[in-house]
Design a protein that fits this description.
This protein has 2 domains: about 100 residues, Beta-Lactamase; about 220 residues, 3-Layer(aba) Sandwich (Rossmann fold), CATH 3.40.50.300. It is built from 12 helices and 16 strands. The protein has an 8-stranded mixed β-sheet with strand order 11-12-10-13-14-9-15-16, sandwiched between helices.
Length: about 450
Amino acid sequence: MIFAPKPPIAQKDNQPETPQIVAEQEVVEQAAVPADETPMDTAPLAEMPVADEAPEAAQAEFVEQTPAVETGLSGINPSDTAGMGYHGQTGDMSFMDDAAVAKEPAIADTMDAQETQPVKEPTQQENKHIDDVWFSDLYFTPEKIAYIRDPHTQFALMPFDSEDLMDFHKALEEGFQGASSYAIHYGKSFFRIERIKTVTGVHYTARRMPLEIPDIHDLSIPDALVRQLLSLNTATGLILICGPTGMGKTTTCSALLKNFLETEGGFAYTIEDPPEMPLDGLYSCKKGGFGVCKQTEVVNNNWDLGLRSALRSKPRYILVGEIRTAETASELLRAATSGHLVISTIHANNLEDGINAIVKYAIAGGMSQDLASDLLARGILAVVHQKLVGTVRLSPSFLYCFANPNPLEADQMRMIIREGKVNLSTLMEAQMAKMIQGRPLFKND
């Protein structure tokens, strides 16, 4: 809303000029002030009193007398927990070291995480083409009206328009080959598409995906967490990344696999629906030799068939885009306990939900609860919960728990999973404390 200035009030001929009278009164009042007294409102800035100002010595004495802050982590100085965030409203404790907080997230909510990128306000003048404006997800309604996320709110959407919007809609229609999930290239961008048939027509959700896989060190993941994940490059078992949709799980998994291939080499096999990140190809290994990755797409939602094919290909690494069926969970548990390093994602609100979901899926596939819990306990290496927090600019927040990569050593996380009553809060807190102190999680680290 724009307020116009009020017009000046016309002076009548016989009306005295008020501003001159006020000015004369001010001169008289100022003259009445004694010479050695300065009015408060005319005192120099340096002489103005400062509220609650205390000498530096007094401030130091106050700090020394201040009781230690309750952090919930025994033996840790409160200053050491500067990189740890505790979300009081949800009770979630997340670990973000100072380096991670200082770094701008390299991925936005591909997020999976691309919402952290600078967002241009879409206007008719700016949006000549879709490539001209950054957004993570575009929602195309059956009425052919497009919306993107409003960067000034947490959930609200705003209308989007561009000169080539209808051309983009045509590309969405032509890219559909029968599967509801597919991918297309449009302009300079790569999109993952979800086609939904609603009561009013066909709706499209287009998620912009990165053209290159980012380095895992550039994803604003805490350095201590990155180091622990990368230390698993020679282990066998399951690395599970869980969290809500659109939180960067796929990007994290892809960046992790890319690092493994560039460090250790070997053959990697992915099962995705559809393939999202450009993982397929040849990688030069830092230790000599090469790494090779082959991406495959699930056919008719038969994830278990893709996993069986992967096992017959004798891969070192297996990436499963998402655990969404009972058969997938069963085959994944067998793969994680048969000499492979398996990386996968699952939708879950916390660590415990992610672990319980795999067990329930496996039970639905015909496995007993004891067998499912035992396979998961033997195969688990790490479970990480990832989400984005914030409104205008989103930042990643992490919860995590690791199992000893040496299966011959006793491990508390494996024991908890076997018992079937999964509560990792105490163990997670203890491991977080060790990471803050720079101590290894396990004796063999």
